[in-house]
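WARN retry 2 of 3 for item q-0093 after timeout on previous attempt; input resubmitted unchanged.
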Amino acid sequence: MTAAPIAALRRPWWWEHRGGLSGALLLALLLVLAVGAPWLDLPNPVRADLPSRMAAPTWSGLQPGAHPLGTDQLGRDILSRILHGSRITLSIAFAAMLLSGVLGTAVGLLAGYLRGPWDRFFMRLADIQLALPLMLMALLVVAALGPSIQNLVIVLALTGWTRYARIVRGQTLLLRERDFVQSAHAIGASDLRIMLRHILPNVLTPILVVATLELARIIVMDAALSFLGLGIQPPTPSWGRMLAEGRVYLASAWWIVTFPGLAILLTVLAINLLGDWLRDYFDPRL
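OK item q-0093 returned
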């Protein structure tokens, strides 16, 4: 067989990365809709309209007052509440991911580079937290501090730092013995400079992969806490709260819980596809 037919049988480059590209495109679309939600011609997400309560979905979107995804038990537009709720959910998720990533990376660098008592202290602390059910710990902390967006970000961040810490610690233990780190130490570089300039850039790849997967976990936990009434409080729209309010009407108005559930499903699926692709792309064994 000649080279031309073989080349013709090759699949396009995007086919090999179709999962990651699909996840990236879906996540980008969600981010665009979330950012642009206030500028879209949508009904007020918190204003009740009792004459329109539990209206079925209609796809005649060009008509004034149409509700493409229906309305809930108070007549509020489901599509508007999903898009406005995505702003809150994604803001909390990204803030908690950033906070837990910074905390876990700092702990992992210190434990892996300094070793000794610092390593034993931080790793035993991580082991204790990993031994506790994360949802139970989050419920206890939120119940003690009170439900608010700030407390929710803190709780979600504190339940995820251990993953970053253990991975960064393992990578740091390997890198601190490499020649370029030993050379920097020999010429008098400080420990802080070695950690920030020589070790941290080499552990950013696993941090990026973990952060992507952690984002999906945070979104699910945020929805679960809001479902239980310990997350985002009404009247602010929240995906988990929409599920909690609509579960009573599942038999008569299925759309109240179906579309928020699909929003959570598609968002988590997109993030997981992107995270799996990043893991495979940066894995040197592949």
